[in-house]
């Protein structure tokens, strides 16, 4: 039963990053604008890099490939993007401030979920298990 639950969790946790990564790769302008607004250099290049990372990491979680590594990387990504792009949420209109506060909370919560996934592993229904890389915790 727990392996089925881990599979369901992986599917749910992968959805946002697969979709977000695809959207960044097909239309990076909005992400590049946020990156430039945060004062980071090479905004377009970083937008494409973020999109590629999100897509590949999301697919890794979905398929159960290198889930422990992907989980730690996604947790770090969530914390970094929450702090770098959403934490100074007292800088816009009231609606923007509220949305940024929600995004910070979402990112920190997702980081916890990815740390848990990195700790537990991909489960029996995964590429990691087929490769012998998954050991039940």
TrEMBL record:
The keyword DNA-binding does not apply. InterPro entries: DoxX, DoxX-like_oxidoreductase. Keywords: Cell membrane, Membrane, Transmembrane, Transmembrane helix. Belongs to the DoxX family. Pfam families: DoxX. The keyword Cell membrane applies. The chain crosses the membrane at residues 7-25, 45-62, 69-88, 108-127. It is found in: Cell membrane. It is a multi-pass membrane protein. This is DoxX family protein.
